[in-house]
Every structure is written in structure tokens, then in C-alpha cells.
Amino acid sequence: MTTCGPARLALIPLQRLITSCGDVIDIETGLVVHTVAPTVAGDEIWYNPGDERVYVGGFVSVPVVSGLRNYGVIATLPWTGFFTPPPPRFSHSIAADSELNRIFLPVTNVGIMVFTDDRDNGEGPDN
Predict the structure, then answer these.
(1) Residue 100 to residue 11: CA distance in whole angstroms
(2) Residue 109 DSSP SS3
(3) Which residue in 73, 108, 116, 117 has the most C-beta neighbors within 10 A?
(4) If pLDDT is split at 50, 70 and 90, which confidence band does 16 have?
(5) What residues have CB less than 8 Å from 60, skipping those under 6 apart?
(6) β strands within the chain, DSSP E
(7) For 18-51, how does the pLDDT look when each residue is reduced to its tens digit (9 = 90+)?
(8) Tens digits of per-residue pLDDT, 72-110?
């Protein structure tokens, strides 16, 4: 039984599911084996096998969770839900391209924001 509901699900390695509220469930037993800390909450969730991360689309922030073993929040996409001038713009959906590891975030009245992990500052291919 999860700690939230209704929750979205993503299949992650080791035959586990992760919910949009951060519960990690063992498929075989149905038991919650871990809850992501700090707490995450979102409307949509996506596991990207290309970078082995889980992205939680959550209106104002987008937590990034390690999809392997420790299931901790490792980053937050640089999206605050706000543009100048106001009003705030929100998103609840998210998608990922596992080949190029690009993360797509549709934003109300703005368009689609695209995020990449450019650790080498443009010197090589994006991760």
C-alpha cells in the first residue's frame, strides 16, 4: 500500500515501481521498500533508462530521483514555475528521450522547455 493516492507509476530497474509521491514498490511482494527523501510529489512521473533517473513533473518544481538502489533526490530541474512578468506558468507533464537524455517539460502559455545534462559545458555530446 502506498502513502499517497491516486499515484502515477513508472517501472524502474530491479522489478520495482516508483509512484509520483516517491514510494518504491517491489512488484513481487507489493510492499513499499523505500520512500524517496526529501519528499517528492507530482502529477506525472517518467523513468529515463538512458540516464537511469526518474523525473517527477510537479507543477512548480521537477525533482530528479536516482533510479537505481538509493532512490534519493539528486537534483531539481532549473524550473521555478515563474516567468517575468507574472502570472506563474505551470506544468504537470514530463517526458524523456533516452537516446539523447533530453527532458521535455510542456509549460502553459510558453511552449516546451528542453533540459539536458551538459556537464562538460558544451565541449562534447550532451549526457
Answers:
(1) 20
(2) coil
(3) 73
(4) very high
(5) 79, 80, 81, 88, 90
(6) 9-12, 16-19, 23-26, 32-35, 44-48, 53-57, 63-66, 73-76, 95-97, 102-107, 111-115
(7) 998 899 999 999 999 999 987 888 888 999 999 9
(8) 998 888 776 676 666 666 677 889 999 988 999 888 777
Please tell me the predicted confidence (pLDDT) of residue 125: 54
Please give the Cα distance from 61 to 64 (Å, whole number): 10
Name the grid cell of 29: 511482494
Give the type of residue at 39: T
What single letter denotes the amino acid at residue 1? M
CA distances from residue 29 to 2, 15, 34 in whole angstroms, order as listed? 13, 10, 13
Grid cell in block for residue 74: 539528486
Of 48, 73, 49, 53, the closest CA to residue 61 belongs to 73
